[in-house]
Fold:
Amino acid sequence: MPSFPSDSAQPSSPVRRSLRALAFVAPSGTGKTTLLEATVAALVADGLVVAVLKASHHDHDLDHEGKDSWRMQRAGAAFVGLCGPGRTTFFSNSGRDAWPPVAEVAAWLAEAPFERFDVLLCEGFSSDPSVAKLRVVRGPWPSEIPHDDLVAIAWDGLDEDNVTGGSVPEDLAPAVARLPLDAARVARWIRENWVHR
Structure:
């Protein structure tokens, strides 16, 4: 019979893990999904466990009418999970008028008992102040880029030999990483500067 430590042997407060989140932001059609997809693939190929969160401006129901999980949601369950041998899916009816802050989702994922994630990458969430931003830029430098929470840019106007600024406006903070619009380079920057292992 296994023995369990007494309650007094438990630490007074559990050690909380943290999960850093980074949102890829840009206007539609800029290529952020393509860059994010290739960046995820590069990080996974390097052995990282990546979580991805997509902002949606639409109500969506990925469940199927008549299925047990759909029926439980319609019965009023605030949270429904589907657990299978190869995939686990969660449905949460938050009751909010807007998406939850990325920081809240990251905190929840950091404590997930089923997986230990190395990084949370997001697509969208440009107006969420709880998440740092990587701005994707294609073509000429835009006349205006919000600098709030901006930690990096990935621009096709930069290459490996010209990441010091070149024609990037001088008002861009020196701490903002300047990266070429290249998934391997973006993945390397994330590994070196964003992932805590």
About this structure: Confidence is low (pLDDT under 50) at residues 1-13. The chain has two domains: 18-55+101-197, 66-98. The chain has four helices and eight strands.
